[in-house]
Amino acid sequence: MNGEQSMRSRRYASLSIDYLTTNLAYSAVLSMLPIMLTQRVGSASVLSGVMLGVLSAAARGSTLFLGRLIEKISTLWLMQISLAIIVLGLVSFAWLLQVSPVFALLGLMLFGVGISLVNFTLRGHIIATTADSKEQASFFSLATLSANLGAAIGPITASYVQCRLGLANFLIIICLIYAVISVITGICFDRHVYLRTSDSPSEEKTSILSTIGTLLSSRRMLPVLLIVVTGSVMNGQLFSGMSLVFHGFSSDLLPSGLFFTVDAIAGIVLQFPISRLVVRIMDTGKTSTYCMGLSLGLYGIAFVLFAAGTLMQSVWFIFAALLVFASAECTYAPLTNVAMVESGENMPLVDILNCRLILTAIGESIGSFCGGFFVPFLTSAFHATWMYWLALSIIAVCGLFLMYPKGNADK
Fold first, then answer.
1. Which residue among 4, 39, 92, 222 has the highest number of C-beta atoms inside a 10 angstrom radius?
2. Cα distance between residue 269 and residue 263, in whole Å
3. pTM above 0.70, yes or no
4. What domains can you pick out in the chain, each with its CATH number?
5. Which residue would you say has higher pLDDT here, 7 or 384?
6. Spatial contact of 318 and 258, defined as CB atoms under 8 Å apart
7. Residue 285 CB coordination number (10 Å)
8. What is the tens place of the pLDDT at every residue in 349-361?
9. How distant is the alpha carbon of residue 78 from its chain centre?
10. Strands, DSSP E only, in 257-358?
11. What are phi and psi of 7, to 5 degrees?
12. Which residue blocks in 43-132 are alpha helix, DSSP H?
């Protein structure tokens, strides 16, 4: 028993450090990347926007095209290869940016592919090494907390290091961080963990489209898919429509970045209490899908408060909305993997994780587009955006009811 507890503690510690450091380094690079690009290619250059778009696309979904390779390599070696790709991408980007900014796209693509592989591998490793859904939820809650902490520290650290040491030394430090992650992974990761087990009834190649078709035809899985997409649409508002509102409230005493800090800190503080509450709810016999559905209710409340804040121009309502929004993120994010695996039953793990990537990418893209289009449009046409946030709240609450048949049907 002590051996199992020791192994579990080591796994918790290593995965927490991995999530913390990878998100710290990634958020640090993202915060400095616009400065690097504008200094070299100019702030008005289309190439600058293209580079950021390429990085985002590669970091979000490049693993979708690497599924066959991912299945054949252990999670330990996947992590090591991914980290090497990240460092290679950063080094080649920094060099090519000075030689030819157009070819620096290749470096950013490599960097994004490495980031996508790291995130995919960490999620898959947790699921592959943890059979109990409640323990999986605890692992992912800890991972979300660590990621939030890294994302909160990264930009602040980047600003401090860059101002005092310069961009070149900043990138060297980032590469050293990834080297440390590689060492920690080599020491703590299990050696023989694969994302598709050899005892699967069939090792036939599965296309993404056929997998999605299978998921959509499953009455057990359909509510999960709809909740995942709806939750991703809600999450996509933070760096689109909500960001535009933050800028409207910003001043010398209230910089727009403070709103993002509130969201990040709230996520860190609330993650553990919400995780424990989720475990207690699941102990009563409710499924992870049921708990994930509850997050949509929180999103609905958050956007009602946000609508009130924009209507009354009250920063306190905005802050209250951010606290509830962070609570929704803490409930939703850790359970997406668990709920999809739980409802997918005998489907291959790689296929389920690939579908999760597609669904969240679709949802966040829709959310970002809607926020980026409707908020400026409504501001220009009606000088108000409260109706948009109220509409989002209604959508979230409608999605909430999808989980009731599932929650009541299950033991």
1. 92
2. 10
3. no
4. 1-194 (1.20.1250.20), 207-411 (1.20.1250.20)
5. 384
6. no
7. 10
8. 767 777 777 787 7
9. 19
10. none
11. -65, -40
12. 46-61, 67-72, 75-99, 104-129
